Structure to design on (281 residues):
């Protein structure tokens, strides 16, 4: 079944049709790490984020039900459902061999009214069998997404024990191409550190790439610079978590990010906007 109206309508709630770009705020970290700083109270965290009017929120099924009021209405953000979970980033209790499991289905996404689903693809497992199982699960998800006209966002990540984010361009390029071949509609990808290597990542993909935020960065300027470089390299937006909801004023940093993603602003222009919003809010 080819892409049809259903998939196009859903994607239009994630990637703004007027720019082709999108800002997604990932708020599913509780599934992996528990109530970490910034999302201890998920309802209050979502309220602070939604004030900044992101294009979409990435959440779990349980959180979606808890924050229903923020997802309803003409101007509400789109809804990306996390459908899998892992413990590989957890420190207490420390994982043994680590797990990666399904926690929701495409049919769950349809019933909940989601606009897309997101799932991991890990490269760097300790056994080939684990990677094969991951591939098989994703292929089945892609098949179901075609049936239900549900956009599939794959998060291809290179993993190493004890390392939160591996940014090796060649391994990321491999993961991105495999995810594209599986039938993803968009990819959530780690930034490789420079626009030249990231442009090669974008070229290797067959679908839009949204740059992944990863760990909290040291300064606002570093956040904005990374996004500007990723957009210059061909990214179509971002999926950020901690760099937004651990910010002193999430709506202010969102305003600055929107200026880059949707209005092609420079880092200096975005920093000026951020300072203005910080004073105002």
């Amino acid at each position: 079944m080819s892409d049809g109206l259903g998939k196009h309508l859903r994607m239009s709630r994630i990637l703004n049709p007027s720019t082709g770009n999108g800002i997604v705020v990932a708020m599913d970290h509780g599934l992996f790490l528990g109530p970490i700083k910034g999302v201890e109270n998920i309802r209050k965290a979502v309220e602070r984020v939604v004030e900044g009017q992101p294009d979409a929120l990435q959440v779990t099924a349980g959180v979606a039900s808890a924050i229903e009021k923020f997802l309803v209405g003409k101007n509400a953000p789109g809804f990306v459902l996390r459908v899998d979970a892992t413990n590989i980033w957890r420190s207490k209790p420390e994982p043994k061999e680590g797990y990666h499991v399904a926690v929701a289905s495409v049919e769950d996404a349809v019933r909940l009214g989601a606009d897309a689903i997101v799932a991991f693809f890990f490269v760097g497992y300790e056994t080939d069998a684990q990677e094969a199982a991951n591939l098989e699960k994703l292929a089945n998800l892609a098949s179901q997404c075609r049936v239900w006209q549900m956009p599939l966002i794959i998060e291809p990540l290179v993993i190493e024990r004890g390392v939160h984010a591996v940014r090796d361009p060649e391994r990321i390029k491999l993961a991105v191409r495999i995810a594209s071949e599986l039938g993803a509609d968009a990819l959530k990808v780690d930034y490789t550190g420079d626009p030249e290597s990231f442009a090669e990542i974008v070229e290797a993909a067959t679908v839009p790439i949204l740059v992944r935020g990863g760990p909290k960065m040291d300064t606002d300027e570093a956040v904005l610079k990374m996004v500007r470089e990723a957009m210059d390299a061909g990214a179509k937006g971002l999926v950020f978590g901690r760099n937004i909801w651990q910010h002193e004023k999430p709506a202010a940093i969102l305003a600055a990010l929107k200026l880059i993603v949707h209005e092609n602003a420079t880092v200096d222009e975005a920093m000026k906007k951020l300072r203005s919003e910080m004073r105002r809010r």
About this structure: Strands lie at 22-26, 56-59, 78-82, 84-86, 100-102, 116-123, 152-158, 186-190, 209-212, 237-240.
